Amino acid sequence: MATRSTSRERYSFANLDEPLELPDLIAIQRESFTWFMEEGLANTFRDISPIKDFSEALQLELEFDPFDEDLRPPPKFSVEECKEKDMTYSAPIFVRARFMNRNTGEIKE
Predict the structure, then answer these.
(1) DSSP string covering 25-88, please?
(2) pLDDT score for 66
(3) Contact, 77 vs 68, CB < 8 A?
(4) Which helix (H) or strand (E) holds 97?
(5) Contact 90/74 with Cβ under 8 angstroms?
(6) CA–CA distance from 100 to each of 54, 59, 80, 95 (Å)?
(7) Quick check: 59 and 50 in contact, CB under 8 A?
(8) What is the DSSP letter of 8?
(9) Could you tell me if residue 38 is inside a domain?
(10) 21 domain-assigned
(11) Measured in whole angstroms, how far is the alpha carbon of residue 27 from the centre of its chain?
(12) CA contacts within 13 A on the Cβ side of 83
C-alpha cells in the first residue's frame, strides 16, 4: 500500500509579504464579561439592596465586592482538566448578606 507524505512545500502568490494578523474575534465578549464581573454584578446588588418586607421590620442587604478574594474563589479545576474530563470551566461567586430585624435590633451576617 502506498503512503503519501503529508508535508508539502507551500508557495505564496500573494502581493503581500506577510499574511495579515487575525483579529481577536471574541475580544468584545471578554470585555463584556470583565465589565460584568467588575462592575455589573456590584451595580445590580446595589440597585436591589436593601430588600425590605412590607412592614419594613425585616431587611436584607446584599453586598458584592469583585476584588474581594473571599467572594471570588478560584475554579476547582484548570482549563486543561475540564477539557480532558468534558466538564464546564466555572468558579463560584459569593455575596455578603446582612439580615436585620428592626423590631428586635438583631443583625445576622
Answers:
(1) TTHHHHHHHHHIIIIIHHHHHHHHPSEE-TTSSEEEEEE--TT-TTTSPPPSS-HHHHHHHT--
(2) 84
(3) no
(4) strand 96-101
(5) no
(6) 14, 5, 44, 16
(7) yes
(8) -
(9) no
(10) no
(11) 14
(12) 3
Total domains, the chain = 1
> Hey, what amino acid is at 104?
T
Section 82-106 average pLDDT: 89
Whether a cis peptide bond, with omega within 30° of 0, leads into 92 is: no
69 domain residue, yes or no: yes
pLDDT at 13: 74
Residues 6+ apart with CB under 8 A from 44: none
Query: What torsion do the CA atoms of 89, 32, 29, 95 make, to the nearest 10 degrees?
Result: 10
Give the pLDDT confidence of 58-82 residue by residue, as tens digits: 999 988 888 888 888 889 999 999 9
Q: How far apart are CA 67 and CA 69, in angstroms?
A: 6
**If residue 22 lies in a helix (H) or strand (E), which one and from where to where?**
none
Q: What's the CA gap between 107 and 22, in Å, rounded?
A: 55
Residues in the chain: 109
Separation of alpha carbons 53 and 59, rounded Å: 7
Is 84 inside any structural domain? Answer: yes
